[in-house]
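Case 435 in the screening queue. Each case pairs one protein sequence with one candidate compound; here the compound is oxidized coenzyme A. For every case the pipeline is the same: read the inputs, emit a complex structure as tokens, and attach any notable structural observations.

Predict complex for case 435.
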Amino acid sequence: MSKEIKVPNIGDFSEVEVIEVLVSPGDRIKPEDSLISVESDKAAMEIPAPEGGEVKEVKVKVGDKVSEGSLILLLEPANDAAAETQPAAEQAQPSKEEEKAEEKPKPEAPAQPPPAPKKEAAAAPRQSPTAAINEESFSKAHATPAVRKFARELGVDLGQVDGSGRKGRITKDDVQGFVKRALSQPAAGGLGVAPMPEIDFSQWGEVEAQPLSKINKLTGQFLHRNWVTIPHVTQFDEADITDMEKFRKEMAAEYKEKGIKITPLVFMMKAVVSALREFPRFNSSLDATGENLILKRYFNVGIAVDTPDGLVVPVVRDVDRKSLVDLAAELGEISAKARDKKLKPADMQGGSITISSLGGIGGTKFTPIVNAPEVAILGVSRAKMQPVWNGKEFEPRLMLPLSLSYDHRVIDGADGARFTTFLSRVLSDTRRLLL
Ligand code: CAO
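Case 435 output:
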């Protein structure tokens, strides 16, 4: 049978605003657990549970005004008798729900009946559980006892948290947001740079908040890690692909009817494998200690694919053993799979090097980020007809811009330049792919 839990005698205060509801239906609560926080113009206080049990229905919400006798919730009182007859082992082992209830921040609630609320500023400073908390600013911060308790448990100095509640009051969400921001910037903190400030962009005009996709968030984490932990160098070069394009166009026309699209990318995959054979350090990864280089004897090429949900990098395996046509067909399959969100994590692992081709879109050059644990990534931009001096005159040649980023811990600048020079030579004369 549910029991009505009402606001007890709270001194001279009436019609005080509910600023926080601390329980939800289904919660198991203990006597004196805080149920709601209320705030008048001068003070904030929490209303504790007169007894334990399971919350069946919460009858107030944030913003409601309550006075003595207002209904807070319906509670199914705990069955004490059942608890007493529980076997000792079970009693010693708290249930999941109880554990959850234990984990919940225990508000600094006054025992019932609550004493007259005291002004927040008068709250006595306590010994800080963390060195980071400045007791003076903590005690001056505008927050309810539950939020104070919560902040102490997380080691958050309330003096540093901006309040989004009424009159700048700090809410539990503000504390959680503060912790999330701190955790999302470990690298920045580690590098000793100032964290990104929280900015309200709406102060300058209309804005819209759009949540990042799961892929955006994951890719963002990897790219951020790779960007700050790998010393990058990008080597730019150009390849004369005039002859290659002539041959590709012939092939493309031939295979179009078979539904296979042959783009310059498959030639680049083959050329890259040829360069990996010549420069094995580019086909390696540093081991976890950073003291050994793991040289790979396989030739798997990751291809960056742009999808509506973000960037993914499926890996084409054994490129050395596949024909240009096989690769073109496989490329068609994996990009469709990527765009239909059918790639599995295993499809995106085990690469030797990655190619990021923006050639179908445009641009002249860019600086791709190494796809760790690989040590190099080749960026390809759009080929352009250009006047090239042949010793006697300018000749129109189709030039392909290449941007090779590499991990400078593994690859020296000279080898970076050798790699792109080799690549350029192979792409300029694709007969070399046969060698
Ligand atoms: N120069 C000139 N034209 C090029 C070219 C280049 N370097 N690369 C491709 N093209 C042409 C193709 O021949 C094709 O022309 P037609 O339609 O006339 O035949 C057109 O551009 C479109 O090519 P495509 O993009 O469909 O095919 P692709 O094999 O070049 O690339 C794929 C496939 C999956 C890599 C690509 O669709 C893609 O997603 N690219 C974006 C990758 C990306 O986002 N990288 C960024 C990572 S870093 O943040």
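Case 435 observations:
- The radius of gyration is 32 Å.
- DSSP finds twelve helices and 19 strands in the chain.
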